[in-house]
Design a protein that fits this description.
- By secondary structure, the protein is an alpha/beta fold.
- It has one domain: Rossmann fold, CATH 3.40.50.11740.
- It has 17 helices and 11 strands.
- The strands form 3 sheets. The chain has a 5-stranded parallel sheet. It has a 4-stranded parallel sheet with strand order 4-3-5-6, with helices on both faces. Strands 10-11 form a two-stranded antiparallel ribbon.
- The chain binds iron/sulfur cluster (SF4).
- Iron/sulfur cluster binds next to helix 14 and helix 15.
Length: about 375
């Protein structure tokens, strides 16, 4: 069997599902409640939904989605600032695709584009730098959105703009880093998370040391890949740890994640950005959870370069994205889910993004009950 095939083999999946169901029953009996595990990566959310794992693992296990969709955790005020940049004359806003449809308080980049604003989707921040070099008559503001997976490429683009002497390129930095959000989840007294399924891509960048806090809390956590059997195996390892009374971070994705992570990417981020407190949708400010432009590259900071009007964000009535991102509710618990909010007419970012929990549940798991309905 080729290496990758075993992660997709239905016979292995069947055996894992059976084993996980039995282990979950034992742990749930010990806890006196369902076992709550959280996947903190949007790509895992989609993989779990697409494979239908939530419905296959039985009633003893409660798999919740967390704050792993980068577009979804963007704060309302930041979305409004993106719209404000798009409204400034002479500016081209460059962004990754998902961001365009995310609604802010009064508009979205998509609506601004329809009204005449210059919004360009770039597959890579390097393309935005090349565009700025080819269009010296326009100011290009790139939207730096995402976790440790996208931040290194944005850091590189800023260095590239510097080395090319570009004066018409800047970045609105809203990057976030994952580990402090895990601490915030564990510090919430309303949440009882028994274990984390940790993100594969982010971990490939930050390595295992970044999860020291989980190790010191002795919280069972497994880094894993994105095939159904990867995820099932991670759940199995989490449950086995719980039965054994153990709690540590296991690297279940060693084919990609190295212990030290990607040190070149880490170095690029450290060179360009500083760590700062950051606002996350649903969480508020999480200490040391964001990146801001470092002093040396301040001239590429769009917030410093342009004066924006005062921002007064308004959260749409009824949207439960904040609680969904914290795992307190499932998409089905939102009264707007499916009735009003759908991928073609999204009310909140969790329905916009391909990695959003609401979109994943809508596409693959509409029949399942919400957290509120089960508890
Ligand atoms: S279903 Fe729509 S309105 Fe409800 S939480 Fe999800 S994105 Fe927000």
């Amino acid at each position: 069997m080729k290496d990758l095939e075993k992660f997709r083999d239905p016979r292995i999946a069947k055996a894992l599902i059976k084993e996980v169901g039995a282990l979950a029953a034992r742990v749930a009996e010990r806890l006196g409640r369902r076992v709550v595990l959280m996947e903190v990566c949007g790509t895992h959310t989609v993989a779990i939904s697409r494979a239908g794992l939530r419905g296959l693992l039985g009633d003893c296990l409660d798999l919740r989605s967390g704050p792993g969709c980068p577009v979804c955790v963007a704060d309302y005020a930041d979305i409004d600032r993106m719209v404000a940049f798009a409204r400034l004359p002479g500016i081209t806003v460059g962004t990754f695709g998902d961001m365009v449809r995310v609604p802010g308080s009064v508009s979205s980049l998509e609506r601004e584009r329809a009204a005449g604003a210059k919004i360009r989707i770039f597959y890579s921040p390097a393309d935005a730098v090349a565009y700025a070099a080819d269009h010296p008559e326009r100011e290009v503001v790139f939207l730096g959105v995402g976790f440790e997976t996208t931040a290194p490429a944005v850091a590189l683009s800023i260095k590239e703009a510097e080395s090319r002497g570009l004066k018409n390129f800047s970045v609105f930095v809203t990057h976030k880093v994952v580990p402090p959000a895990l601490d915030a989840l564990l510090g919430d007294p309303e949440l009882k998370i028994d274990g984390f399924i940790l993100p594969g891509h982010v971990s490939a960048i930050i390595g295992l040391k970044a999860y020291d806090s989980l190790n010191s809390r002795r919280l069972p956590s497994v880094i894993t890949g994105f095939e159904a059997n990867d995820i099932l195996d991670a759940v199995r390892q989490l449950l086995q740890m719980m039965l054994a009374g153990e709690g540590r971070v296991i690297n279940g994705y060693a084919r990609v994640v190295r212990t030290a992570g990607n040190m070149i990417a880490q170095q690029q981020m450290a060179e360009v950005f500083d760590i700062a407190d950051a606002p996350w949708r649903g969480f508020g400010i999480i200490p040391d959870s964001g990146l801001v432009m470092g002093e040396r590259f301040k001239k590429f900071d769009a917030l410093d370069k342009f004066a924006l009007p005062p921002i007064k964000p308004r959260v749409p009535t009824g949207c439960a994205c904040g609680d969904i991102l914290k795992g307190k509710l499932a998409p089905r618990d939102c009264t707007l889910f499916e009735r009003v909010c759908k991928p073609m007419a999204p009310v909140g970012p969790c329905m916009v993004s391909s990695e959003g929990a609401c979109a994943a549940y809508y596409n693959y798991e509409r029949h399942l009950k919400g957290v509120a309905a089960v508890e």
